[in-house]
Amino acid sequence: MGAAEAAALGARLDRLPLGRFHRRLVLALAGMILFEWVETYSFAFVAPALRSQWGLSLTDIAAVAGIASLGAFAGGILGGRLADRAGRRRTMLVFVTVYCAATLLCVLAQNPWQLMATRFAAHFGTQGMAVVAIVVLTEFVPAAHRGRLQTYKVVIGSLGIPIAGWAGYLLVPHADWGWRAVFGLGLFGGVFAWLIRRWVPESPRWLASTGQQARAEEIVRRIERQCGVAGPPAAVHPDPAAVRPDPAAVHPDPAPGPPTTAAPPPPARLRDLLDRAHRRTFLTVSAMWTAGLLAYSAFQTWTPTLLSENGLELDDTLLMSAVLTTAAPVGALLSAPLIDRWDRRVTQFALGLLSSLALVLFAFVRAPAAVLVLGCAVNLLFQMTVPFLQVYSAEVFPTRVRALGSGTANALSRVVNLGAPALIAALYTGVGYTAVFLFLACLAVVGGIIVVALGPRTTGLSLEAAAHAEPDSPSRPRRQEHATHD
C-alpha cells in the first residue's frame, strides 16, 4: 500500500467528529490503565507494612522496587516491538493476561524473593500493555482532539493512584493480610481487557503500514458509520471500451496476471531507532521520559517511607500519602484545556518548572500541614505532565516504528529506575531527607528543557505530518526518503 493511500486513511480518521466509538475507546483503555496504576503504585503503600512484617531494610525495599523497574523495562521494549510486528490489539491482550496472572501471584507471595519475581512479571505485563495503549489511542483519535482524549484516559487511569493510596490507608495498618488485598485490586483490570476485545479494533494505520489495505479500509468505514459520517465512495473503474488506449502503452500480446500491491516495509527493529531518520527523535523522547518518570515515580514510591522514617506514625504516614495521591486525577484533568491549545513542548516545560519549585519547598518543610499542601501541589503538577509525555512520545514517530520507538524510550527510563531506588536510599542515608527532594526538583525540569531545545512541534498536526516535522521548523516535512517509513 502506498504512503499516499495510508495518509488518506489517516486523514479520514482525523476528520471524524467525536462519537460513541471514541468514548468507548477511551473508557476501555483508561479502565485497564486505572487498575494497572493501582498495581504499579500499590507497593509504595504496602512497603512500610512489609518492612514491619518481614523485617525488610531500606535496601530490601529498594531491591523489590528496582526489580519491578527491570520488568517494566523488558515489557516496554517487547510490547513496542510486538505491537509493530503483530498488531496493537493482539499485543495488548497478551500483556494484560500476563499482568493479571502475575498480580494474582503477588497476592500469594510468601517471602521477599517470591515478591521480587512476581513484581517483575507484573510490571512486565503492565508496561507492555500501557505503551501499546498510548499508541492505540493516538492512532485512532482526530488530530484536533488527540491530546485531550489522551488526557481523559490519564484522568481515569490516575484514579488508580488514590485508590491504591486509600486502600493502603484503610487496609494495611489494620490486618496482616491488608497488603495482599491492596495488591489484589489490580486483578479488576481484566474486566476492561474484555471490553477491549469487544470495542477496540486493530489500528487501521498499522494495518495500512503492513500492506493490509482491505482490512484497514473496512475498519475505517465501520468507525465512520459509528460516527455518523459517510465514507468516500468505492473506487469506480472506467469501462475499458470507453477509454481510448495509448498505442505506446499496449503490449502486443497482453497476458492477464495477479494485481500488484506494494510490498509491506520490513518489520521494525531496535537498531532502526538509531538510524539517521529517527535517532534525534528517539534520544530526545528517551531523555524526556527518563527525567520525568524518575522524578515522578521516586516521589510516589519513597514519600510514604521517608515520612515514616522522619517521625510520622504509620497510620499518619499512610493517611497523608493517601491524601497526596488524591491530587493526581485532579492534575490530569487540569491539563485537558491546555494540551491541545498551545505548543505542547512549551507547556510541558512550564509545568516542569512549577513542579521543581514545589519540590524545593517540599524539601524544607516538616510541619504536617505544609507537607500536605506542597505534596498535593507536587502530585497535581506531576500528573499534569503525564498526558504531555504520553501523547508527544507517540506522535513524533512514524507508524512503522511508533510503538517500538515510544515503548523503548519509555522502557529506557525504567532502566534508570532500576538503580533509582538504591540512589534515593543512598542519598537519604548519606546526605539526608532534604537532598532527596532537591535532586527530584532538578529532574522535574530537565525533560521540558530537552524537548523544547531538541523536539519538533506536533500540536494540531496529523500523525503523518507530526512524525516528519523538523525540530527547527514545525511545519516543514523531513526529506522525502524518510516519509516512506510511514
CATH class: Mainly Alpha
Tell me which CATH architecture applies here: Up-down Bundle
Number of helices: 20
According to CATH, what is the topology? Growth Hormone, Chain: A
What is the SS-derived class? mainly alpha
Structure description:
There is one protein chain. It is built from 20 helices and 2 strands. It has a single domain (3-207, 268-483), classed as Growth Hormone, Chain: A, CATH 1.20.1250.20. Strand 1 (469-470) and strand 2 (473-477) form a beta hairpin. 73% of the residues lie in helices and 1% in strands. Helix 1 runs parallel beside helix 11 (213-226) and helix 7 (160-171) runs antiparallel to helix 8. Strands 1-2 form a two-stranded antiparallel ribbon. By secondary structure, the chain is an all-alpha fold. The termini are close together.
Structure summary:
By secondary structure, the protein is mostly helical.
What are its keywords?
Growth Hormone, Chain: A, mainly alpha, 486 residues
Topology at a glance:
Elements: H1 3-14, H2 20-54, H3 58-86, H4 88-108, H5 112-140, H6 146-158, H7 160-171, H8 178-184, H9 189-199, H10 204-209, H11 213-226, H12 279-309, H13 314-325, H14 327-339, H15 344-364, H16 368-395, H17 402-430, H18 433-454, H19 463-466, E1 469-470, E2 473-477, H20 480-483
Antiparallel strand pairs: 1-2
Helix pairs in contact: 1-11, 2-5, 2-6, 2-7, 2-8, 2-9, 2-12, 3-4, 3-5, 3-17, 4-5, 4-8, 4-9, 5-16, 5-17, 6-14, 6-16, 7-8, 7-13, 12-13, 12-16, 12-17, 12-18, 13-16, 14-16, 15-16, 15-18, 16-17, 17-18
